Amino acid sequence: MSSILKSLGVRFSRSLRLPSPSTTNKSDATFFSPVWQSALLKEDIIHDWKQRRVGNKEGLGLIERLDRIESILDQLARDLKMQKTVNDQLAKERKAENESQSLYLTAHSGIFSRRRENVIHGGDILGDLEVLEWAKDKLPWRYDGGREGFESKYCISMQYKDQILVAPEPIIKAFNILGDMTTHIGWCTSSLEGMAYASCRIIIDKWLEHINTAGREYLEDVIKREFEILDRIKNGKNKT
Fold first, then answer.
1. How far is 232 from 225, CA to CA, in rounded Å?
2. For residue 160, what pLDDT is reported?
């Protein structure tokens, strides 16, 4: 029995009363069998009453190490549970962000579609610039394709973005008509489209001359004349 206590520590659920050799109290003397009494009274046996443990140094050390391992495993289990909670929350946030992006693009597409259904010239260069700026940060992998589509649609480089944002209303209108024609919305015949395209290009080219020559005279009369042509084209088209 003593060999067991020497190899392992023994943990008791309640305090032990170890009788001394001179004990005369029968109840104390018979608390342990003679074999246990002999083992427990060995000099190398440690009685840890505070932790309710009895055993030799190696055995109690093993129990302490097992306790530490158990504590570490419990902590790892708690950490794993917490990490799962964090991962679930991140997944929900990513899903919400993706849904938000999808709703944003859907909303803009719907707005643009309604505008084009309600007016003859449905291009929206300012709105398209807004979407491109948003996509540049949120959907960078789609930005280059969107930029190329913008430049093809409005026949102007994105390098003029800042000037377009502050351009006079007639210039924005010309860009919108031009964008409308390049996507074949609202124009029925090639002859009308060719005439309108030429007028829009004149308006835009005059504006580009103005900003590229650092303040060259802005030819409002030329732009006004070209818009009169566009109005006649529109009226002639509506009669057909």
1. 11
2. 92
